[in-house]
Amino acid sequence: MPTPHPALARAEAFCQTYDLRIPILLAPMAAACPVSLSVAVASAGGLGGCGGLLMQPAAIKAWASEVRAGTNGGFQLNLWIPDPPPARDVAAEAAVRSFLGAWGPAVPAEAANTTLPDFAAQCDAMLEAGPSVISSIMGLYPPEFVARMKARGIKWFATVTTVQEALDAEAAGAEAVVAQGMEAGGHRGAFDAGQAEARMVGLFSLLPAVVDAVKLPVIATGGVSDARGVAAALILGASAVQIGTGFLRTPEAKLPAAWANAIGFVRPEDTLVTRAFSGRPGRGVATAYARAANAPDAPPPAPYPVQRALTQPMRDAATKAGDIDRMQAWSGQSGGLALARPAGDVVRDLWEGARRLLQ
Ligand SMILES: Cc1cc2nc3c(=O)[nH]c(=O)nc-3n(C[C@H](O)[C@H](O)[C@H](O)COP(=O)(O)O)c2cc1C
After folding, report:
1. Which one of 76, 83, 278, 284 is least enclosed by Cβ atoms within 10 Å?
2. Is beta strand 240-243 parallel, antiparallel or unpaired with respect to 218-221?
């Protein structure tokens, strides 16, 4: 029998450790991770995923139970590591509200007084749900929580955007790192939000550098939406790939049609990184609002999560109207490769295609 390509052997070892048939992970995507999508991906042999950022503890536990009712496959639960409470600036918020008033309903001043679900209670809920993997983004879990995860045999995957973050994650006890290239759709996972735009590294540079720097398995994420990307990531040293945008056009993702359609037309140059939706930098389709809000004459966005709360009325109205120009249409740079096909078929075809390329 011919010896398998070393990249395939590495992926196979990862699959054995995590009880997967295919080394493809559904990216945890806050507000875009319906049970149906994880059931489809996990049933096809990959790993499901839930972005719990905006979910109350009970909803996190219910999500896990519903996925278990639909598949025997595994999944990861994921949280953002919270920043300190944002500094408030009433005058700056008023300027943002006035700007937003031209794009959607008038935004009342109280809209900015938003609260997030309790992080410690969300962490407890994740432990109770007992997934095979818990992942982090925007920083590292506190040591006490890491110890509690380990005591339960739950593995910790830490999202990193630089080599230094990968080293820090390894030192903090992560079992694997998810190297997020700047091509990625959605929020940039930089530990220090203030440095996110200055430290934009593409996956082709980040991945081999992280692989060389840490002893942990590395999962590649960002701009991987077809079999060529999967094979390339494995050759660059990844043990698995994590895909977000590549699943957003599948029927199981249940995305608003205007957003799903727009992703299908995205060329790499048609996305941009902006703080204008949430206050944290994220990559999405370069819609009319995103471009206008990124222009030099636009008011600077409020910090996360104030900006997110201020844009909520516009985003809700746009989603209701199916108006892509005002929607928060996150997409990675490879959106144009995402297929509007059942998610299970996407998983299987990605893997069969990658294997053929690696023969
Ligand atoms: C709609 C959307 C929401 C996301 N939400 C989260 C999240 O809550 N937690 C997280 O770790 N990553 C989140 N991400 C980032 C993904 O985990 C991943 O890094 C990214 O999708 C990879 O790039 P790709 O979209 O080009 O595949 C999100 C991405 C998208 C597109």
Report:
1. 83
2. parallel
